[in-house]
Design a protein that fits this description.
20% strand, single chain, five-stranded mixed beta sheet, 252 residues, elongated, alpha/beta
């Protein structure tokens, strides 16, 4: 009986439109935490609608949305996972829009020297330790990282020394603690890394373009979902993303 009641409550939540005075639920890639929280606060001040965020690896969020999780908006760190939920009709096709881009960097604990003369120095500097990376099988940053290392001819050398992790913020924490000598993350993660520093910046042409895409979920019912998507592309949100290190309409 309890399971039946839970199912009924979930059905009601998914069918009945949420009022504007209820929080708007946004599932967003972990790499966007600080920027999205600031955007959410600003949106709430302008609209009167609070924004409730759930941050995790994009693949994890996509599967939750596919399973019917009560999210109103999905923000993906790449096009592949957005295509995944589109194919399963878990987001509304006409609502998808690109809101930002990013770059890849290699982080090391504070006080470390930059790679010299460049990325070719990585295997020697890594020695027998691990390279932290978001899981290349499921996480966009990991896929981008694998492509970048392949383009530099380093993948076959370092792939046996990878430490795959759930998302870039877990990678960032591992580097900051000194658990690993290097971690592959986005440039925006480096902006918030007080105990780690950038020792190498990957060429943009060595991996697919990093695209952050936002869309309204098919199960979403909040009246302000579309308004929030429009806000993400507006000047205020774009300035917040730009100041957080993301590439936006203000920068190519």
């Amino acid at each position: 009986m309890l399971d039946i009641l839970k199912a009924l409550v979930l059905t009601i939540l998914l069918v009945v439109p949420a009022r504007a005075d209820q929080p708007l639920t946004v599932f967003a890639a972990a790499s966007m935490r600080e920027a999205m929280e600031e955007i959410g606060t600003t949106f709430a001040e302008e609209s009167g609608t609070d924004v409730l965020f759930s941050f995790a690896g994009t693949g994890t969020l996509a599967r939750q949305i596919e399973a019917g999780a009560p999210a109103d908006v999905f923000v993906s760190a790449d096009a592949e996972w957005m295509d995944y939920v589109l194919e399963r009709q878990a987001v509304l096709t006409g609502s998808v829009r690109e809101i930002a881009s990013n770059r890849l960097v290699l982080l090391a604990p504070a006080g470390s020297a930059r790679l010299q003369p460049g990325a070719s120095d990585l295997p020697e500097r890594l020695e027998d330790e691990r390279l932290a990376i978001a899981d290349p099988e499921t996480v966009p940053a990991g896929r981008y990282g694998k492509a970048a290392l392949q383009a530099l001819g380093l993948w076959d050398t370092v792939s046996s020394q990878l430490a795959p992790m759930d998302n870039v913020r877990v990678v960032l924490a591992a580097v900051a603690r000194g658990d690993v000598p290097f971690g592959l993350v986005y440039r925006t993660d480096a902006v918030v890394a007080s105990d780690a520093l950038v020792v190498y910046e990957f060429p943009d042409d060595g991996h697919p373009r990093i695209r952050y895409l936002a869309a309204q979920t098919a199960n979403g019912s909040h009246v302000d979902a579309d308004r929030f998507l429009q806000f993400l592309k507006g000047p205020v949100a774009q300035e917040i993303l730009h100041s957080s290190g993301f590439l936006t309409d203000k920068e190519g």
